[in-house]
Amino acid sequence: MPAYRPGEAREWALENLTGVSGVTIPSFTADLTRLNRAAIAHDIEHIIGLGFDHTLVMAEVNLTPEENAEFTAIARDTAGDRLGLFFHAAFGTLADNIRAARLAEKAGADLALLSYPPQFRAESEDDVYEYTRGFCEQTGLGVMIFPLPSWGFERFHPAGMSVALIRRMLDTIPNIVAIKAEQGYPLPAGVIETYHHFAGEVVISCPIEGHCVPLMDVLDLRFSGTSNTQWMSTYFPAAFAKARAGRWAEAMEDYWRGNPPRQAHDAGTGGYLSATGGLTRTIWKYQAWLAGFGGGPRRAPAMRAPDRHMRTLRAGLSAAGLPVTDLPDSEFLRGRFPA
């Protein structure tokens, strides 16, 4: 159950939602019939050890709401109170997301990240508002809304979610506690405009690591997430903490040392993101495996990780002097904890 009572989520988040959030993708047994508890527990311990404050319990894979609750429970049992957990409202229908959120809340989730299903085609801002309200009113979790070009809402506003729409949501949906601001990605205009209008009312997240640290010289950003920055090991939690503590110049020194893997990530993901409007979680799982996470098999349907992208991502970490496994890529899908 969350640490806050009904009606207190926004106030709680303004005080407690700080630091950085990574992403934890579920691990499965070799026959893909069950969750791999040992691998999940390892990944949770590892992300805590790297200095992350929160993680998204990733559901945008072939996972049932019940399995997602089990995944959440394993994460909570492993982490205790050392790590905040985001439920990922990424199931196929509004009803599924509500059911999964209720199960995850009982299993130990702290907050929810709201996505919009692929078959949800909004034709107006009213449609987006009603879906968002419909989810938020049926969960006890505080919700981070997520303006993102992938949803296709630009058909009725260039920002996807306009300032007016977000204003309406915040005024009428009290358990919205944060905004993961990616309007206009890959440009930073969305987070800057969101901060201008709503900072202080709810938590403003700049989840794009390549934007966040530079912007922290001019924006008082207190939280960044959710994103797969854990593949760069301790770099981002440390740089974020330095910038928050007024040591921005030092944080930027770290930032530039991290440029090779940042460029490798952009090279490996930019093409398919713009072409498909989606992310390949296999690449994210591989990136984490390079940095010591469990890896392991994925349920179909799942995109493959091309060898050329693997080589580029591995070389990026090596060029920056960041931790990278010496295991061959052939071990990735076997995983560190085969079961």
What would you note in describing this structure?
This protein is α/β, with parallel strands linked by helices. It has one domain: Aldolase class I (TIM Barrel). The protein has helices at residues 9-16, 37-49, 65-79, 94-107, 125-136, 163-172, 189-198, 209-215, 235-244, 248-257, 259-276, 281-290, 307-320; strands spanning 19-24, 54-57, 84-89, 111-114, 142-145, 176-180, 203-205, 223-224. It has an eight-stranded parallel beta sheet with strand order 7-6-5-4-3-2-1-8. Helix 12 runs parallel beside helix 13. The model has no long low-confidence stretch (mean pLDDT 95).
Distance between the termini: 30 Å
Strand order, main sheet: write it out: 7-6-5-4-3-2-1-8
**CATH homologous superfamily grouping:** Aldolase class I
SSE ordering: HEHEHEHEHEHEHEHEHHHHH
Question: How many β strands by DSSP?
Answer: 8
In terms of DSSP E residues, the strand content is: 5-15%
In the CATH scheme, the class would be: Alpha Beta
Query: How many H/I helical runs?
Result: 13
Outline, from the CA principal axes? Answer: globular
The secondary-structure class comes to: alpha/beta
Q: What is the makeup of the main sheet?
A: 8 strands, parallel
CATH level-two architecture: Alpha-Beta Barrel
- What percent of the residues sit in helical stretches (DSSP H or I)? 40-55%
* CATH topology name: TIM Barrel
Quickly count the domains. Answer: 1
Spatial extent as radius of gyration: 19 Å
List unreliable stretches of 5+ residues: none
Average pLDDT taken over every residue = 95
